[in-house]
Amino acid sequence: MTKKKTYAALLRGINVSGHRKVPMAELRPLLGGLGHTNVRTYLQSGNAVFTTDSGAGEEELRTALEDAIEDRFGFRVDCLVRDGGYLAAVAEACPFPAAEIPGKQLHAIYYSGPADPELFASVDREAYLPEEFALGDRVLYLYVPEGLGTSRLSVVVSRPSLLKGLVATARNWNTVVKLIEMTRED
What are the C-alpha distances in Å from 165 to residues 1, 102, 116? Predict the structure, then answer.
């Protein structure tokens, strides 16, 4: 029998300004219908946690969820699925002093695959100070002391020319920490 594993599903670009609505109250039973258990959601911005013993990997879980959302809601939503161990490793590897920074100033932008460091080398880091970024394992850490909404650097590091087809979805550090707590396997 396959061991149970807990994952976070990160949905991209839903419930923003009344568009692409995926109510969390409907997402929970949708995930349950895929055979997952202990399904929980966090906030309305597309964060779900679930446990599965299916033996499926992240990509298979992602595809099944994207297909189910499209079947239920009539539009496709890009999703990333990451296990709790990965989320904890991302937090542990953060190059910024996360415990000392307000959670809304630090963000993890999760990627569907590895980003190419050579493409990001073209960003003039000095021009955006005090904003900063660092690449990690399928993640970009973004420090924006004035917040994401006014960040010039966030626009630059989100350019398609840097992402080269990667799906990206951002979470502030408060959400990063909460998802780690929710996926922790006791």
Answer: 36, 31, 11
